[in-house]
Design brief:
This protein has about 190 residues and is of the alpha/beta class. It is built from seven helices and five strands; from the N terminus they run H-H-H-E-H-E-H-E-E-H-E-H. Strands 2-3-1-4-5 form a five-stranded parallel β-sheet, sandwiched between helices.
Length: about 190
Amino acid sequence: QYWEKGALSQEYNDHSYMEDEDNQNEDQASLNDYLYKEVLCDFNPNDLRENDTKFNKFLSLIKELLEKNPSEKILVFSFFLRTVSYLEERLSEEGIASMTLIGGMNKSEVIDKFRTDNKAKILICSDSASEGVDLQFMHILINYDLPYNPMRIEQRIGRLDRYGQKSKQIIIWNLFHKGTVDEKIYSRLIN
């Protein structure tokens, strides 16, 4: 009921109110207080990390693919920069070498290094790599999360499905939990 004061009906173009409590108005502070006390009271981020079912599925898929072909190079896309970092960190903990490609990096340098690096098997990218990048030396794409715009998914696929692709088949995995927005996006894509 704290949000009924209008805190949620306001539009927030940036979420700085979540980071700077000194700038919060009373309604926003009340909402945050409510969330911390009532919703997140038993939340422990370490529990989430240990029980991250989506990552566990992702990890088993990666291990299965690399077991079948240890020299395989796999492209992974995530919409969120923090998720890109999270995936790189978690894969490293599992002994799986990866590289990241996000906005602000020199795309061609990262791709050239990844292509020739025998240890790095996974290239984890933000959507900034979904345009102007030729990755036809790979044929497996994992969408860790799905952007709301289906054309962004097509852009991701287009990094592999290009002139010069040597594989007869491109494999695309879309990871999502049932009952989420990602599932609705996926359903729209295939129907």
